[in-house]
Amino acid sequence: MRRFCYLGLAVLTALVIGIAQGAIGLLPAQAIANAPAEIRGVWLTNVDSQVLFSEQAVKDSLQQLANNRFNTVYPAVWSWGYTLYPSQVAERATGYKQGLYPDLENQGRNEALEAAQGDRDMLLEVAQTAKDLGLSVIPWFEFGFMAPTDSPLAQRHPDWLTQKQGVLPAASREQEGRHPRVWLNPFHPEVQQFILDLVAELMDNYEVDGLQLDDHFSLPVAFGYDPYTINLYRQEHRGQAPPANPYDAEWTRWRADKITAFVEQVFWTVKARRPNAVLSVSPNPATFAYTHHLQDWPRWREKGYIEELVVQIYRDNLASFRNALRDRALQQARRHIPTGVGILSGLKDRPVPMALIQQQVQTARGMGFAGVSFFFYDTVWTVAEGETSSDRTQAMQRLFVTPRQRPSIANSPRPAVTRS
Predict the structure, then answer these.
(1) What single DSSP character describes residue 161?
(2) Which secondary-structure segment (H or E) carries 156?
(3) What is the β-pairing status of strands 210-214 and 278-282?
(4) Which of 21, 255, 343, 369 is the most exposed place for a label (fewest CB within 10 A)?
(5) Percentages helix, strand, coil for the chain, rounded to the nearest 5?
């Protein structure tokens, strides 16, 4: 009953009219404006998905989202060591202006498909189509500082890579999925400039609503033992080398603070070009992010660099999902900035039952979070065992009954940001 009171008479009246006319989504603009804001997002990826590979697929997918009253898309634009849009910055660094298809250099078929894209600009299509449909577009830097071991980026710039203790960069690999990955050195000035140039180019060339960094805008704690970083640490520690223990508290804090300082540069690069664009972050829960990946996003939030937070809470049962939402850092964040919950809607051949998705959405709402985003688009509609396609679609429509606007950072009690 409290929810209906909060919606207000205008929204409730419009809802009744909509039901009678069979057109729930067509609410008056004033009613939508008066309804509580909510993030209703979904990630668009180029892995196990065809959604970004043609203009028609982009149009059809965004139309489906608009029809189901989503309001935000997070399209991948930096993945597998390539940009997914035409980029002069990427072409200078990698020799490829874009790479929509993953694992491009190893797959003859993918290379041919990429060539067939010609001069197509996926991100421009997404931005233009979304604007017409009332969807916000926040490009997503999916790979952050990570790159495939055999990517042109890694092969051309071995000096940009960091490494584990006693292991050369080429051998300092982290297995993720089927493919070994290396890590760009987030402390190296040339790496930083490359990322900042990508961000600047993106903000200059596309009418987007923000930029999203995720859990890969970080560094696994075992890394940082490359010559550049060791020398930098020595300069700031009277010649002393970094501790042999990668989990050493001071060594962890030193590296995490360096990444935080770089996030400030990213923030100001975005704001210099698009003052109203938000810097969004979709990390892992805070303790894991800091301890294992040197990603101190609570500090980023305290300094005002994060303007939207969507924490990945990918859990296969409701009890662990609810417990993760009680995290202190997450609870603090939601009091200061729009804070949503990333929900796993499925992986390839592993769809999540819609009943669990519904429970998680309602739990996030009930605990006061600002909305949700689903990973990833295709699996939102992929039926799980015992479901039909109609069941899945109808259940999704019941999650988002009426249109909602996205939360505004203007109304958030976040700290004022000043340059360091």
Answers:
(1) B
(2) helix 152-156
(3) parallel
(4) 21
(5) 45, 15, 40
Residue 284 · residue 218 · CB < 8 Å = no
How many Cα atoms are found within 13 Å in the side-chain-facing hemisphere of 292? Answer: 10
List all residues 6 or more positions away from 29 whose beta carbon is below 8 Å from its beta carbon.
none
Q: Parallel, antiparallel, or unpaired for β 136-137 and 72-75?
A: parallel
Q: Give dist(CA 243, CA 258) in Å, integer.
A: 17
User: Among 314, 315, 309, 365, which residue's Cα sits nearest to residue 337?
Assistant: 309
Q: How far apart are the first and last CA of the chain?
A: 48
Nearest to 223 by CA among 152, 147, 282, 279: 147
| Residue 221 CB burial class (10 angstroms; 0-12, 13-18, ≥19) | buried
Give the residue extent of every domain in the chain: 1-35, 37-407
Nearest to 244 by CA among 260, 263, 259, 230: 230
Q: Enter the pTM of the model.
A: 0.91
Name the band, by pLDDT with cuts 50, 70 and 90, for residue 166: confident
CATH code that applies to domain 37-407: 3.20.20.80
Phi, psi values for residue 224, rounded to 5° = 120, 10
Nearest CA to 205 out of 83, 31, 118, 319 is that of: 83
Q: Which residue has the tokens 């770089």?
A: 262
pLDDT digits (tens, 9 = 90+) for 380-413: 999 999 999 999 999 999 999 999 999 987 666 7
pLDDT tens per residue, range 329-358: 999 999 999 999 999 999 998 999 999 999
Count of beta carbons in the 10 Å neighbourhood of residue 366: 11
pLDDT in tens, 85-129: 999 999 999 999 999 998 655 556 688 889 999 989 999 999 999
Question: Token digits for 27?
Answer: 């609410």
**Prior bond of 376 cis (ω within 30°):** yes
Tell how far CA 100 is from the center of its chain: 17
**Distance (Å, whole) CA 347 – CA 227:** 38
pLDDT of residue 35: 79
Residue 32 pLDDT greater than 80, yes or no = no
Other C-beta atoms within 10 Å of 408: how many?
12
| Three-state SS at 158 | helix
Q: Do the beta carbons of residue 87 and residue 198 sit within 8 Å?
A: yes
The pLDDT of 123-148, averaged and rounded, is 98
